[in-house]
Amino acid sequence: MVGQWWKEDDEKVVIRCYNDRRDRTEMDCVEKSCEIGNDQTFLFTDTLGDPICRIRNTPRFIMLVAEVRNKLVGSIQGSVKPVKLQDKSVNVGYVLALRVMPPYRRHGIGSILVRKLEEWFMSHNADYAYMATQKDNEASLGLFVGKLAYVIFRNPAILVNPVNPRGLKLPSDIGIRKLKVKEAASWYRKHVVSKTDFFPDDIVKILRNKLSIGTWVAYYKNNDKIISWAILSVWNSSKVFKLRIGKAPLSFVILTKVCNFIGRFLPFLGLTALPDLFTPFGFYFLYGVHAEGPLRGKLVRALCEHVSNMAALDDGGECKVVVVEVDGESNGSDYSLMRCVPHWKMLSCDDDTWCIKPLKREENTTSLNDFTNMFLNSKSRCLFVDPRDV
């Protein structure tokens, strides 16, 4: 696959599939040159020696690389999976990890990589392509929305809560039970699939994956409150990759040290200790979070605290935070997962932006405006965030 990129000597960019034996060393250089952040703060991802670790658990996946003069200058990853969207079964392609080294940016290499990936999506019968970025990432939005005709359709929030190594006390009136895989899949299909978009058709495969620790349901022990319940599943990302904050504002460093000092010597204050995020750490990702009933909020919080206690006891302290991605809007309802899920605002972000593009023209969709309105009208439905996309 050959594309054109603008430069005085009219050089060619070659797009091909990633070859682990040939490309791993150069790919590491590309990743380091594209670390997320700015001069003050950046987030480094350690893939534990597997550059395609974040897509390897999906049904079909690919990694493409871009070469100029036999030098690796960019890459992109993608996967295709079956989901429920607008109550229909469709195949969606997920665009992930678009990277172009700084000296080679603004020459069309990113566009070529995305278009070649979209061609691969269509060859695998994908109906839509979608991606996630930050709402203040002007370069990314300029490429996908401004140039490639993607549409912004959701602004979910990523909620992060530090794991308390001392453990948390759970409410005595709440019971928590672990479900078997078949029971969990049945529960999700009965109560969740009709109320969410992007619900994976292969939910059983996800629940059976070695990275999926299990599914838990919370309920009130008093039978009179049985109409309220909550459910979630847990994915252990620490077995796939690690994160590390390379730099941070001085205020964050000071707060970390103060919280840890006070929590160690004055534990009766109940102050949550901040984990050391400057060394590589993993996290538990909560997916399939759903609750019903008038007293559901307390149940969601109890489940999250239960998972935090699990993380504190597991993996020798590798999992230092618990993460969940939820809809950023309450849609006019008093109930919002953002209000129920315990999280630290300084560690969380509410600027995640999901964009989507049709790869096939719907019979009843005659224009891009019709397509946009279709997703705007579906905002009453929640998102099911696939842990394999994290």
How would you characterize the overall build of this protein?
The chain has two domains: 160 residues, Gcn5-related N-acetyltransferase (GNAT) (Aminopeptidase, 3-Layer(aba) Sandwich), CATH 3.40.630.30; 154 residues, Aminopeptidase (3-Layer(aba) Sandwich), CATH 3.40.630. 26% of the residues lie in helices and 34% in strands. Strands 1, 2, 5, 6, 7, 8, 9, 13 and 19 form a nine-stranded mixed β-sheet that branches. The longest helix is centred in the C-terminal third of the chain and has 18 residues. The N terminus is likely disordered.
Shape summary: globular
**Can you count the helices?**
9
- Which architecture of the largest domain per CATH? 3-Layer(aba) Sandwich
Summing up helix and strand content along with how strands pair, one would put the structural category as: alpha+beta
CATH superfamily of the largest domain: Gcn5-related N-acetyltransferase (GNAT)
Q: What is the share of helical residues?
A: 25-40%
Q: State the low-pLDDT regions, or none.
A: 2-9
Protein name: N-acetyltransferase domain-containing protein
Pfam family, one: Acetyltransf_1
Organism: Brassica rapa subsp. trilocularis
InterPro entries: Acyl_CoA_acyltransferase (IPR016181), GNAT_dom (IPR000182), Plant_NAT (IPR052810)
